[in-house]
Amino acid sequence: MAKSEQRVALVTGAAQGIGAAIAAELAAEGLKVVVADINGDGAQAVADRIGGVAKTLDVSSPEQVSTVVGEIVDELGRIDVLVNNAALVPLTPWAEISFEEWRRVMSVNVDGVYLVTHAVTAVMGEAGYGRIVNIASNTFVAGTPNCAHYVATKGASIGLVRALAGELGPLGITINAVAPGIIASEGVLSSAHQHGFDYVVPMQAINRRGVPSDVAPAVAFLASEKAEWITGQTLVVDAGHTRN
Ligand code: NAD
Ligand code: 4PL
């Protein structure tokens, strides 16, 4: 199997929203992008649009993660960039969060990040090179109400970035988080999160609704060769809604 010189990126949850914008940005920069999503048809549509490769993948399934990462290595020969974007984005008051919902959110947003990162770092470690970007959220900074399980998972994502940076650095792998503020993705626009713009936009330094393409360039920079000296960090991309 011939190895191409083109860098390969795996973006999870890339069938729509922020993930699709990241996939498009990386493709525009010349990377071969694997568009992975539990929604296989949506992933295929995005892959067709950007000249990428679609994979149906539930990140919370150990079997599926193992199979898909193996397929990518077989078919494309390398994984240079991983963007852990797939997540459930619920809006549920604390008193109404059942243990079942809590566990499902942990399973996708935390177990999913573990599973994909664990599989991909094995490949990157062999190559001695990698760029990992976790999509966190500024809810971890703001302590946004009515999604405590979700905020907890984003804390886990940032914790993993901080902890793994030291273990992955010697392998030539950087790992960082990008923490967006509220973004008009398909998911947010089709849920009660859409009403969040009414109170968040006035708190931002730039007073318009954020869109997925506002987040993608920060991710592409951290995934680039030029970001070699940055690891273990969280970059908040929220038009100044929060300041840290
Ligand atoms: P979205 O709901 O519009 O899209 C999420 C995508 O993930 C969908 O295509 C969905 O099919 C996929 N997905 C869900 N479960 C999956 C699973 N088990 N395996 C694989 N794919 C799965 O979401 P979005 O708003 O674009 O959010 C993307 C990322 O950005 C998430 O990590 C989210 O937490 C984060 N984020 C979003 C906002 C926002 O306001 N939209 C703000 C900060 C952070
Ligand atoms: C500020 O990550 O960061 C709503 C939904 N509002 O998912 C988020 C803000 C949402 C956010 C988020």
Describe the protein.
The chain has 244 residues and is of the alpha/beta class. It has a single domain (8-237), classed as NAD(P)-binding Rossmann-like Domain (Rossmann fold, 3-Layer(aba) Sandwich). Helices cover 44% and strands 15% of the residues. It is built from nine helices and seven strands. A seven-stranded parallel sheet has the order 3-2-1-4-5-6-7, with helices on both faces. It is globular and about 45 Å long. The chain starts with 7 loop residues before the first strand and ends in a 7-residue tail after the last strand. The mean pLDDT is 97. The protein binds nicotinamide-adenine-dinucleotide and 7-hydroxy-6-methylfuro[3,4-c]pyridin-1(3H)-one (4PL).
Question: What's the short story on this structure?
Answer:
By secondary structure, the protein is α/β, with parallel strands linked by helices.
Considering the chains and any ligands shown, give keywords for the structure.
244 residues; alpha/beta; Rossmann fold; seven-stranded parallel β-sheet; 9 helices; binds nicotinamide-adenine-dinucleotide; binds 7-hydroxy-6-methylfuro[3,4-c]pyridin-1(3H)-one
Described by strand count, sense and barrel closure, the largest sheet is: 7 strands, parallel
CATH class: Alpha Beta
Which structural class best describes the helix and strand composition? alpha/beta
Rg from alpha-carbon coordinates: 17 Å
Biggest sheet, strands in spatial order? Answer: 3-2-1-4-5-6-7
* CATH fold call: Rossmann fold
The oligomeric state is: single chain
How many strand units?
A: 7
What is the typical, i.e. mean, pLDDT?
97
Order of helices and strands: EHEHEHEHEHHEHHHE
The CATH architecture comes to 3-Layer(aba) Sandwich
Ligands (ions, cofactors included):
nicotinamide-adenine-dinucleotide, 7-hydroxy-6-methylfuro[3,4-c]pyridin-1(3H)-one
Give the tally of structural domains. 1
Protein name: Pyridoxal 4-dehydrogenase
Pfam families: adh_short_C2
Organism: Microterricola pindariensis
InterPro entries: NAD(P)-bd_dom_sf, Sc_DH/Rdtase_CS, SDR_fam
